[in-house]
Specification:
Length: about 190
């Protein structure tokens, strides 16, 4: 991990812990989860928002005013809105993507959930997703929230990542393995 990524993650973790504890103490975890989803959607959908949080061109005041207006327009809770304003005043908005990730992890831990990143060669049906979630729940002992993406280059099968574990049953990886075996023989 690069030094700047490590610093960003550390800053985000401190803010995330503070926001999470405030929300938990105020019994506002539901609204915190909605706020995290809204921020994540805004980061992914808007290049202008990403520019606002990353660009050094904007002054502290301009970032603070813009983030306050956005927080109000998005209907964010007071805790999250105030945290974003504080981050703007300290020139820390650039860690917002890491903050969202850290908050998702804290919320999942509190709820006894774990997140699985699933890459599939084709879109999974609702029954397939349910069966996979049940299988993963049995393996990890926690409720599993899945982020499913489609990657046609897998040809067939799945790649499942849960925490530090990865299971690759894709046809692509099997073909690569076979290709490597054939190179060793010949």
């Amino acid at each position: 991990m690069s030094e700047s990524a490590s610093i960003s993650t550390g800053i985000a973790a401190r803010y995330a812990t503070a926001v999470f504890e405030l929300a938990r103490d105020g019994k506002e975890l539901g609204s915190l989860e909605q706020d995290v989803d809204a921020l994540d959607a805004a980061i992914n959908a808007s290049a202008d928002f990403r520019d606002l949080i990353n660009s050094p061109i904007y002054s502290r005041d301009a970032q603070g005013e813009a983030i306050a207006a956005l927080a109000d327009k998005m209907g964010l809770s007071a805790t999250v809105a105030n945290t974003l304003k504080l981050m703007a005043s300290k020139r820390r908005l650039f860690v917002l993507p890491q903050l969202v990730t850290a908050l998702r992890g804290l919320i999942a831990d509190e709820k006894g959930e774990v997140t699985a990143d699933v890459q599939a060669a084709t879109a999974l049906s609702a029954d397939q997703e349910k069966a996979l979630a049940e299988t993963l729940k049995g393996a990890v002992g926690k409720d599993v929230k899945m982020n499913v993406t489609v990657d046609e280059s897998l040809i067939g099968g799945l790649i499942v990542k849960v925490g530090s574990k990865m299971i690759d049953t894709s046809i692509r990886s099997k073909l690569m393995s076979l290709q490597n075996t054939m190179k060793e023989v010949g």
